[in-house]
Amino acid sequence: MNHVPEPAKERLLYLLRLLEKNRDEGSGLVTSAMVEELTGWHRDTIRKDISWLGNGGEAAGTPGGYNPQFLIPAIRKALGLDRVRRFCVVGLGRLGSAYLDRPFAPGPGGMEEFELAAGFDTNVNRVEILKSSVPLYPAYKMGEVISRFGIEMALLCVPAAAARDAAGKLAAAGIRGIINFAPAALALPPDIAVRNVYLADELRALAVKLFPSGC
Amino acid sequence: MNHVPEPAKERLLYLLRLLEKNRDEGSGLVTSAMVEELTGWHRDTIRKDISWLGNGGEAAGTPGGYNPQFLIPAIRKALGLDRVRRFCVVGLGRLGSAYLDRPFAPGPGGMEEFELAAGFDTNVNRVEILKSSVPLYPAYKMGEVISRFGIEMALLCVPAAAARDAAGKLAAAGIRGIINFAPAALALPPDIAVRNVYLADELRALAVKLFPSGC
């Protein structure tokens, strides 16, 4: 299989969510025209994206549209979402500890793709006192635990002032990607992927849904 | 100004973030070809979206591309993001209280568009004990406070079992949109906008960045 370009990956991920939602709502085939209508991507672009999937994508196409039953696993495979990946939470204050025991909102795809394997905090007292079904460790054990459990991703939930230092330690420990909830820009080697989560983006996306413009 | 269709709104919002990021990084004009390259939307679609902005969009266009200095405020105006909107946090457990005093990660657009105006919890003790620069109230005062402060949006941070009930109370109190962090589907009248925030979606988007497919 060829290397899928970044913009195609993003569109395929969006398409995956759409297909899963459709499936959960019991709808049938999905056509590239439907996707164009919903997203504004040209149907030729969508067809090209699906062609990256190789045989799995082709098998999903019928004259009436794509069959989610085949297209969903084909996209998951092409995007590397077809096996469980482990992640950890770093910083067990209010935000970080909130992620420890909440049953995750699974989303249309479910949470079977990810497993929370560890929590870390520099405060050893906190690590000992917090009750959690997830094993918790003092931050100095990051390297050992991340390597032992094969943890690939981290939710960074430390205060802004501690974010760069914690991210640097995660990088040294071999982490491959970080979801950054801290209001601070990270400086990391280019081979470590970062997603900054901004509350303002969520609020904006909601505000836009709420308020018809021109009013 | 005409009513902007939903898919065009979503694309304009994405374009807004792109323009703000470009501006912050000191880059210059943005062309529809650049946007097509980054997003896969056909350049004619992008031009059509910008035409919804009316004069503000046209004024931003030059032979060399769109000028972010004009296009950014035109998009903000068309999407209703040109005034401060108030929001509240409902449920002051670990997750909800984490939002109370954190300096928000501003995102490329800054947080000047939103103001956290109140926090609510059914537990009166918690409301009294928590220290916060944001005023906190027992949940039974929701209707009064939301109306008095003109609060339009809510972050719903209650446990799953309490989510539907709390959302119903917010609806009765006149809230217009909810960001749902609870792992539960809400049942609300169609005029109330809901955004479900799924950790799985964030993890997926990171995983896709991390792992080149075909490896």
Fold and architecture overview:
Two copies of one chain form a homodimer. The first copy, chain A, folds into two domains: 6-78, Arc Repressor Mutant, subunit A, CATH 1.10.10.10; 85-201, Rossmann fold, CATH 3.40.50.720. Chain A is 47% helix and 16% strand. Chain A starts with 5 loop residues before the first helix and ends in a 5-residue tail after the last helix. In chain A, helix 1 runs antiparallel to helix 5 (68-78) and helix 2 (32-39) crosses helix 3. The mean pLDDT of chain A is 85. Chain A has ten helices and eight strands. The longest helix of chain A has 19 residues, at 6-24. The first copy, chain A, is of the alpha/beta class and 215 residues long. Chains A and B meet through helix 1, helix 2, helix 6, strand 7 and strand 8 of A and helix 1, helix 2, helix 6, strand 7 and strand 8 of B.
Taken as a percent bin, the fraction of beta residues of chain A is 15-25%
Give helix and strand order of chain A, one letter per element, not per position. Answer: HHHHEEHEHEHEHEHEEH
Strand order of the largest sheet of chain A: 5-4-3-6-7-8
Oligomeric state: homodimer
Rg of chain A, alpha carbons: 20 Å
* Category by helix and strand content of chain A: alpha/beta
Largest sheet, strands/sense/barrel of chain A: 6 strands, parallel
Helix content of chain A: 40-55%
CATH topology descriptor of the largest domain in chain A: Rossmann fold
- Uncertain residue ranges of chain A: none
How many strands in all of chain A?
Answer: 8
Look at the structure and give the mean pLDDT of chain A.
Answer: 85
Work out the count of structural domains of chain A: 2
Number of helices of chain A: 10
Any idea of the CATH class of the largest domain in chain A?
Answer: Alpha Beta
